[in-house]
Design goal:
Largest sheet: 5 strands, antiparallel
Number of strands: 9
Distance between the termini: 75 Å
Number of domains: 1
Order of helices and strands: HEHHEEEEEHEEE
Shape: globular
Length: 251
């Protein structure tokens, strides 16, 4: 019987063939994504939902914000209009889940480090019962005193007995796409601004149905509070080198 000697070339050939076979096997096991991700997003960005412990949505006002509401109080789930409360209790469609994961619609306190100083900052939805209005606030805990860096006021809705709050806010954690996933996102793919946005925490806020100064709050009607209208447009708040940035997204 003729003996066969192991040669370096033969060993390398077998090793390369084995590596090729393993690569093909792994590729067959990878599921196809429903939506393609931009080239500047890492695979983890496909997960739009915060996971694990430390859920960002909180039910109570943080102690460091006590005494800062000035006539307002923290919104409770029953303060949101019936449309949003009903939506909260229904199964969400696929598009909603892609955008916001399993984050609740009736959240009034979001905690995250928005300015990168390793201290929790807060996005709030508060209500003024006397005026029957609601307000969004972005609060940074710079130094010893909280600083409100952005507010958005929401006029009285047409049917106050069904709730005062007709907006919702959602957290984008660092290294998640969040609203950058949408075609209407204004920062171009591959740009440094977009890369920075993906790398930091941000909060998305649904805008009021009426944002034109030509239409006063009295023009609000019940038809504007349908599920297919609410959430049609959003503002996105984040910080870049300590400066507040606000983006407009739609669709």
């Amino acid at each position: 019987m003729t003996s066969h000697r192991w040669t370096p070339l033969g060993g390398w050939a077998i090793a390369l063939f084995a590596l090729f076979f393993v690569s093909l096997s792994l590729a067959a096991c990878v599921p196809t994504l429903r939506h393609s991700l931009p080239s500047d997003a890492v695979p983890e960005s496909a997960a739009l939902t915060p996971s694990g412990s430390g859920a960002p949505c909180q039910a109570e006002l943080p102690p460091e914000l006590d005494g800062t509401l000035n006539g307002y109080r923290l919104a409770q789930p029953e303060d949101f209009i019936a449309t949003l409360r009903d939506w909260e209790n229904q199964a969400k469609d696929g598009e909603f889940t892609v955008r916001y994961g399993d984050q609740p619609i009736t959240c009034s306190v979001i905690a995250a480090d928005f300015n990168g100083d390793r201290h929790l900052d807060y996005a709030l939805i508060v209500v003024n019962e006397q005026r029957q209005t609601s307000q969004f606030r972005l609060v940074l805990t710079r130094g010893d005193r909280p600083e409100i860096v952005a507010t958005r006021d929401f006029p009285t809705p047409p049917q106050t007995d069904e709730g005062l709050v007709y907006t919702a806010m959602f957290l984008k954690l660092p290294h998640q796409l969040g609203p950058a996933y949408r075609d209407s996102f204004p920062l171009a793919e591959g740009s440094s601004g977009r890369s920075h946005f993906i790398s930091v925490a941000a909060v998305e806020l649904w805008t009021a149905p009426i944002i034109s100064p030509m239409q006063p709050p009295a023009a609000l009607t019940s038809e504007m509070f349908r599920p297919d209208t609410l959430g049609e447009r959003s503002e996105v708040f984040y910080l870049d080198r300590g400066e507040l940035q606000v983006l407009q997204v739609s669709g």
